[in-house]
Design brief:
The chain has five helices and seven strands; from the N terminus they run βαβββββααααβ. With 180 residues, the chain is an alpha/beta fold. Strands 2-3-1-4-5-6-7 form a seven-stranded mixed beta sheet, with helices on one face. Helix 1 crosses helix 3. The longest helix has 14 residues. It is globular.
């Protein structure tokens, strides 16, 4: 089972991104569940979503305390939350940032990093800082746990062709780094 924790802010599509990941795993014959966690439900407030995906039925329906992957939709969230809490060995980080890989300070448990400036991409194509579809493309590129075509299909169904194009573009431009 792969456990994923998404960190974002209200209005960025964090919860919907979690649901799309689950859909993509189910579409390929697997199982999944997503659990949102809200504080105050308002634009800009901290939002966390938890996802589990597997090839067999999933029993736990709790928060993810030891993620295999962390998706950070908004880099400023790291100033408010310990996003790396409980991170497992050999984990993946999918990060929305303008920073170069060499400038990042990462825990030793992270072995793969997928970087994308999702905010700039969203502003360029949507005129809004809604980063969920770009981060979904980066997630697929960084993990290969679900199929890009399944993510694109669900995004197109939910939000139309432009957002489906953002997923594909994000997949193409995401830079993936392996850490030894």
């Amino acid at each position: 089972m792969k456990e994923i924790r998404l960190h974002g802010r209200g209005g960025m599509g964090t919860v919907k991104a979690a649901e799309v990941i689950v859909y993509a795993n189910v579409a390929k014959g697997g199982y999944g569940n997503s659990i949102p966690f809200f504080g105050f439900e308002r634009q800009g407030a901290q939002v966390t979503a938890f996802v589990r995906i597997d090839s067999k039925p999933i029993r736990p329906k709790t928060q993810v305390y030891e993620p295999d992957c962390i998706i950070i939709m908004d880099p400023t969230i790291q100033n408010a939350v310990d996003v790396f809490e409980g991170i497992r060995e050999n984990s993946v980080l999918v990060l929305n940032t303008k920073e170069d890989f060499a400038n990042l300070s990462l825990p030793a448990n992270i072995k793969k990093v997928a970087l994308i400036d999702a905010t700039s991409l969203a502003l360029e194509l949507l005129n809004k800082p809604i980063t969920n579809t770009a981060m979904l493309g980066a997630f697929v590129k960084g993990t290969e746990w679900v199929n890009l075509s399944d993510i694109v299909s669900k995004v197109r169904e939910n939000w139309g062709d432009l957002n489906a194009d953002i997923v594909r573009k994000a997949y193409e431009i995401t830079k993936v780094y392996e850490i030894n």
